[in-house]
Amino acid sequence: KSANPQWREQFDFHYFSDRKDMLDIEVWRKDNKKHEELLGTCQVDITALPTKQTNCLELPLEKHPGSLLMLVTVAPCTGVSISDLCVCPLGDPGERQQISQRYSIRNSFQDMKDIGFLQVKVLKAVDLLAADFAGKSDPFCVLELGNDSLQTHTVYKNLNPEWNKVFTFPIKDIHDVLEVTVFDEDGDKPPDFLGKVAIPLLSV
């Protein structure tokens, strides 16, 4: 019930240079659980923003009244990576020794925000649900930690896909839960849910 809402929420997105450079934003109005109405859209050209500083943007909503006020910071992405299994980051013994020293008890108070890294090797899935009429699925896997999200490529027409990807996340909260979800790619339609597992970091 507000025409001037304040959300004051922060979201982190991993911006890789080989992805599209536009940040798409939609503002929606929700009457109840079933009825939603689009109040406007806007875009931010990430490549046009200066890096390593907070940019205050007032964005007019396209074809609708109103504007969106937001702060956008483009900063170098540290610790986050997607790689193949054969070139696994943190796999080098010398690198592992450096990390052990970095997070030793002696250095634990140097940077209170630097908790550590989580590395996840997504190998394969077995006996997935068939989502297509042909008895197959087009599965891909999404990993979410806090509000960080990374995903594998899609393996088409396969119920036993092998991704063999390595994902590295910086940990921001030791109480976070790693959520791994498998979806079926469905063209322009929203992907179909094939299964999910949740792993609390404190259980690792």
TrEMBL record:
- InterPro entries linked to this entry: C2_dom, C2_domain_sf
What is this entry's stated membrane topology? Multi-pass membrane protein
Note whether Calcium occurs among the keywords.
Answer: yes
PANTHER family, A to Z: C2 DOMAIN-CONTAINING PROTEIN, MULTIPLE C2 AND TRANSMEMBRANE DOMAIN-CONTAINING PROTEIN 2
Gene Ontology biological process terms from the UniProt entry: regulation of neurotransmitter secretion
Name the SMART domains for this protein.
C2 (SM00239)
Native species: Halcyon senegalensis
Chief location: membrane
Could you say which protein family the record assigns here?
Belongs to the MCTP family.
Where is this gene product found? Membrane
Domain named C2 is located at 1-59, 93-204
Gene3D superfamilies attached to this UniProt entry: C2 domain (2.60.40.150)
- Can you name this protein? MCTP2 protein
Please name one Pfam family that this protein belongs to. C2
What do the Gene Ontology cellular component annotations say? synaptic vesicle membrane
Q: Name one GO molecular function term.
A: calcium ion binding
Keywords assigned by UniProt, alphabetized: Calcium, Membrane, Metal-binding, Repeat, Transmembrane, Transmembrane helix
